[in-house]
């Protein structure tokens, strides 16, 4: 019964592609098979990404509206479900203006180049045991390399607009993205050490064979990755680059029509892909105790992905925007040392416990998880206290400024 | 301290989200135009009222209008008076300066307290005699407080939703208290 269910195309849609390819005549050349396989994979990816784009916008607007005690979109279609489609039609019908003093070629190339890396990272997202577009043996490296390319198009957009707000936004974006790239990569190295591989499928199967997700073995690493990823995404707690109350709309101030639409789409695509990778690298992808035999793996994975997306929406609905200096201080003074310590701890554990702890022993893994959780908490609090970060261990005045410098300044003024 | 405030904030928004979905605290938004929020009768809005019986057809309003928006067509009537044949205001051109309302010697032209004057066609923004007459209920009490008192006396003024709700709650509590009293008294 279960075997039959596992063999159906609903449980394993990749079986459909396999069947289609095996229906080809045996004389068909290899390059044709490869081409067809990649084409089917692309169609599968697009079949997930394009409807998700629309759904994600609707969900985000609805949830944020409920957090702020509003209705959200409820006019177009039942409960406003057609609102994203109406928005998309509107944005496509709008005029695409190019600034007269701007750099025309760079201005047009930037949105396309911005969308490209966000889409390319989907190649390594594992939707199921057999549903991986490209199982690169350097998967995580590919994620880091391709994901960080999107900084350049942002700067291209800001520079070619010939607008001071766009340039300011782009410069903030570059500073922020590059700073948070460092702790993000270092927190990923921890799980690479545990898995002993850069391959995404190997990382997932290691989690499944251990019977414990990396979020338990690397709680601090996950926290750092989560914070760094949310800073990379440039969404509301960290949206200095398009802070509408400070610099109009940041790097896409001058963009309109579908060129702006591409920026918008790419932002949501990278949000989805980072949620996907977070659930794959830290939450065991399609593994879920007790239900993963019955529920199709791709459904579990999409469920986890959307759960992460909702967490990001929740964060956006809660937190106010940080200041650029606060954000940079947090990256370099707090996250970077913590991620280095976390990396050293992970390396020490892997080396020291290699003989003591076989990966198959479940109990030992959980004990290690508890130790790591305690260590992570200790490090988090200890670092805050050691570095005496203002606002964390030092009392602030009501307006948020540290007391001591203010008092000193007042004394200097008086004398 | 140590990010606890952040968690508290997250918990607060989560609770608000749940409460809003469960309609424990319903959304504060008015679903315009089906639901309309309270507009004070004192608001100087984007519309006009005109009373035919007060108007003498002197066209002082038309003369005082800086944009020439008001058009008055009259013919001679009995006892050396004017009969007003047509009285038109193009509120698409009007800038709502109020000179016409102030200049009317007989108080025949007033603002309404309508806050929305949007139409799909330009032609609909030209308000004729009959459209102006039908809006008398919403006549603005701007500068004429006795209009508001009169409307309140006639029961034509809507109260704000929160005042209505508070009054209803008060009435419900009063009846509840009365019931419990009659029950516990013997």
The gyration radius over C-alpha positions of chain A equals 24 Å
CATH architecture of one domain in chain B: 2-Layer Sandwich
Low-pLDDT ranges of chain A: none
The backbone outline of chain A, from C-alpha atoms, is: globular
Mean pLDDT across every amino acid position of chain B = 82
Strand content of chain A: under 5%
Tell me the distance between the termini of chain B: 58 Å
Largest interface: A-B, 19 and 19 residues
**CATH fold description of one domain in chain B:** Alpha-Beta Plaits
| Structural classification of chain B | alpha+beta
User: Care to count the β-strands of chain B?
Assistant: 5
Q: How many H/I helices of chain B?
A: 6
Computed over alpha carbons, the radius of gyration of chain B is 25 Å
The quaternary organization reads as heterodimer
The span between the termini of chain A is: 87 Å
Overview of the structural elements:
The complex is a heterodimer of chains A (415) and B (186). Chain A is an all-alpha fold and 415 residues long. Chain A has a domain at 94-353. Chain A contains 16 helices and no strands. In chain A, α8 (164-195) runs antiparallel to α11. Chain A is globular. Chain B is α+β, with helices and mostly antiparallel strands. Helices cover 37% and strands 13% of the residues of chain B. Chain B has 6 helices and 5 strands, in the order αβαββαββααα. In chain B, a hairpin with a 5-residue loop joins β2 (70-76) and β3. Classes of the chains: A mainly alpha (415), B alpha+beta (186). At the A-B interface, α3, α13 and α15 of A face α1 of B.
